[in-house]
Amino acid sequence: MGIIEIEDLVFEYKKDEEDSVRAIDGVSIDIEAGSFTAIIGRNGSGKSTLAKNINALLLPDGGAVYVDGFDTRDEEGLWEVRQRAGMVFQNPDNQLVAAIVEDDVAFGPENLGIPSESIDERVRGALMAVDMYEYRKKAPHMLSGGQKQRVAIAGVVAMRPKCIVFDEPTAMLDPHGRSEVMEIMKRLHADGITVVLITHFMEEAADADRIIIMNEGRVEMDGPPAEVFRQADRIRALDLSVPIAVELAERLRRRGRDIPAGIIKMEEMVEYLCQ
Amino acid sequence: MSIVVKDLVHTYGAGTPYESLALDKVNMEVADGEFAGLIGHTGSGKSTLVQHLNGILKPDSGQIFIGDVDITAKGVKLTEIRRKIGLLFQYPEYQLFEETVYKDVAFGPLNLGISEEEAEQRVRDALSTVGLDFGKFAERSPFELSGGQKRKAAIAGVIAMKPEVLILDEPTAGLDPKSQADIFDMMARIRAEERIILILISHNMGDVARVCDKVFVMENGRIVLEGPPSEVFSQGELLKSKGLGLPPAAEMIHMMRESGAELPETPLTVDAAVDIIDEYLLKKHDRSLAH
Fold first, then answer.
1. Can you give the residue range of the structural domain that contains B53?
2. Total of domains in chain A
3. Cβ A252–B278 below 8 Å, yes or no?
4. Smallest CA–CA separation between B152 and chain A, in Å?
5. pLDDT for the residue B81
6. Quick one: closest CA in B to A269, which residue?
């Protein structure tokens, strides 16, 4: 049984009484505890809507979503769901609420009604997990984009979630900020947290152990990155692209070079070429 | 038309405890018809600089010449500057507000006092430039569009002003790969048809390397490096020390070099990288036959 179970999910945005847009059209996904799943798909394919259904920001119109066994539709279990499945969004500025970094991270646990001694401990642990402990007394607006996003992640980590859904967490960051946040996601995953990453960066998706491609509210492809990216033409037809290593391998093969299948990361390509 | 920035200085929160020097004697020249890239980590001063170019911010000292006009001089009409310099902010779709795409795109031109007919022509031209079909999109609500379409509609609103300089701040952030490619096709089209100056702010080094003639690297409110992409992106270590990186193709070759491969050139595009690797494999093959 997965930590997140999505069963035949349907979700519609209602414009008025009669008119609605079906954003999720019968999606079933089982996400294993401790896994790292990337969700990709063109703008409007349903990725973010799916993410918001995972932590009960949106509720199903059909089907069901279970987080660690809790049905997201069950109002009584709302905080159980939100505490277990945290969310990190694109813009760190919209996620930071307090004037001091450590107060911001404490905000979530305080809302859970946790005694203040253990809040301090959680805040320290969370800030250390994202390498931001030394900035604990700073004002968030003095931080770089990547640092702000790490504080936002610490705020979620302090809730001790089993799963974190990242919705394009690096879209607004510079290259350094992007790699900082990517490193933190990998570290949290290594620590046992289930990671779901929505992204338009194919290089980031290549780091996951499973890729789900959404298209028109449905799951179009689902598998390990090497398997998914092998189907480059199909991926391009879905308005997506492939990591640079895949593209290089493809073009070198066309010139008669024998590049093994399954190379999707730059490191793998370099290792093969320079062996 | 050209842009010349001379010794531009800007301080945020002057006289408060938060005082910080955002622009520290910036000098910059962009020639007529050039496509310039502006890179630098968050907070390096890129957005502050371009906000001076269209008069949103006033410098503490220094000058900005757009053509022959010093826009920092007293008595310069801001409306005139803003018509000439189109600035597309990050996530411009949040600024769409009209009932229809047509009204949104026509809003700026009508404010210039042009006729309804000319405004319609401009809306048609602008939508065609960004790749939105007039018949299909003009009467739709901007809020019904997809993310990529909204972004294009917002860009059309700036283009319809017929700017002589178009500044785009992270125009592809948050878009899927296909929409990103569409926006770059659009920039190429604007460049070919309008022959205006384009300035692109981006964190995507691959894009900057591919499309720009000239790259400016900012750090701590200064321009610390400038030149054609081939020169700027040959300095990988320096860029990394500034929180930046290399275009993916250059990064790939850089990593191969670190693993011992002897590769003299730094490619900026995937095409160039394929050539370099192909040649490298050929030599390696020959060498192994010789042994």
1. 3-246
2. 1
3. yes
4. 13
5. 86
6. B252
